Amino acid sequence: MTKWLSAVGSRLSGKTETMEIPTPDSRQPTASEPNWRLLYTAVITELALLIVIFYAFTKAFA
Amino acid sequence: MRTIDWVVLIGTLAVIVAYGTWKGRHKKDLHGYLLAGRELKWPTIALSIMATQASAITFLSTPGQAYTDGMRFVQFYLGLPIAMVILSITAVPIYHRLKIFTAYEYLETRFGVGTRTLTSLLFLIQRGLSTGITLYAPALIVSVILGWNIHVTNVVVGLLVVIYTASGGTKAVSRTQVHQLLIALGGMAIALIIAIHSLPQDVTLVEAFRVAGRMGRLNAIDFRFDPKTQYNFWSGLIGGAFLALSYFGTDQSQVQRYLTGSSITESRLGLLINGMVKVPMQFFILFVGAMVFVFYQFVAPPLFFNTVQRAKVSTSQYAAEYEKLEAQHQTQFTEKRADVQRLLTAMRAHDDAATAVATTALRNVQERETATRTAAASLINRTQPGADNSDTNYIFLTFVIDYLPAGVVGLVLAAIFCAAMSATSSGLNSLASTTVVDIFRRLGKPHATDAECVRLSKLATIAWGLFAIAFAEFANRLGSLIEAVNKLGSLFYGTILAIFLLAFYTKRVSGTAAFLGALIGEAAVVWCAVATDLAWLWWNVIGCVVGVVAALIVQRFVPEQREINEAQQLSS
User: If both were cysteines, with which of B34, B208, B285, B404 could B408 make a disulfide (CB 3.0 to 4.6 Å apart)?
Assistant: First the structure.
């Protein structure tokens, strides 16, 4: 148990595992990929529409 | 429950467990067991993400929330689509290209193993407890309404989940979730149709909407800003976005769902579809509750829906007082029903003045009825101090049991248990992967073989399953369960999000600064929870903002550490 704990301790203070850290995706869409900008706009537009509809719903029946 | 209900319930659950076990067979390596071989397509990912979030609590407690408080709870989800877009742009490509098993692996590349371990442990505590609540909620409610033994229900449902989650891993979880969510939504749709169909014949759907609206049950959007109000547009959009960013971006139970995507495109589409469908889905579930509320304007509801507490108070020294409240409640119902009728007549005659008078009268009697229900709850509390005096969770199931036809009751119960099983299975699955990948393989045995890790993942799933069952046995006095589970998450999510934001967007913050920033952020959240009455959705914002700012400030005072960190990275 002590051996295991000391091994854990040495790993916690030890060297970090390394991986190449990629940056957020900045690639242009390829032919097989959806148009991401359009999709993101669609999600936000749908949210805006839902808020307007819910507000109208609230007001209409209040 | 009639025989046909038992057949439908047991048949559905047995098919789900068998299907999950069968689908997850032949997964021998860790990649296949924890990430389903990274071969899933976006429809499965989207439904799996939604099923993970939509537990039995969602289907039991949310309609009750609409019944007692109206539909404003839908605002809690308004920040979710924004979070889905942000995560699709930032987190998904990073996680995919690193080919990681857990979100916390990424943190090590940025801040070192200490921060990875701290975040993993925060996750294990929070998710371990939440999974217990996820299991406990339906067992509690079903035991109260149907008189089933809560301990047996907990253990049976818990073990069923453990069987296919441990044997089939992530693939079994994701594949079964698709069917579980469809069954759950189908059950709710049938309940809605029957609730509307059970209204008096002369009441149209639009009139039902009007009654609900006039009584404050269709209050979906409230633009007034008040930091002490739990659900309004601003807390939902801002606090909800922070909560969703943290939950979907850093909680392994969700990250693991989209890590199974065969490509970045599949994972992104899964998240975005969730962003588009989640808000309407929650609106639909709340709407079921609003219609159940309208139904109970024409059929007398019980004064208190929790039958166990009702029975206890009826045999206590407060029995006479409770009986008096029941009589008062009955009188108020008769009065309310007459007022509803008056309101309908006035609206049909397009008489605005009479409509306004009837609405005021209806709201008055509604207020008095609420006061009577509060008095009953306090009486129950006096009978048994600390008793569960919130009956929000029992309303929908009482309606199902009392008014739905044979067979449909079994289907709705199957839907509720399916939802419980789907959320529990992804909880256990993520707890097992974090335990094995971030704790065992990282700190205990770095050179463990795949076979050892798969074996340990199965054991970890079983162990966490037993922990969840044990916690479920002790969980009590949690009020509205859907609030309880989100409140518990909000204690940790802001801080975890702060760590991930520092990792994603800052280059100069060291592991020490991020670690200390996280501790300061967590202290701020605990202070808000204990010493202030700030609405809990804002805890996510506080934890995140304080965590990030504190780390940036600390960083100014620990340049040496940063240099050491950079030197370490360069040398490696």
Answer: B404
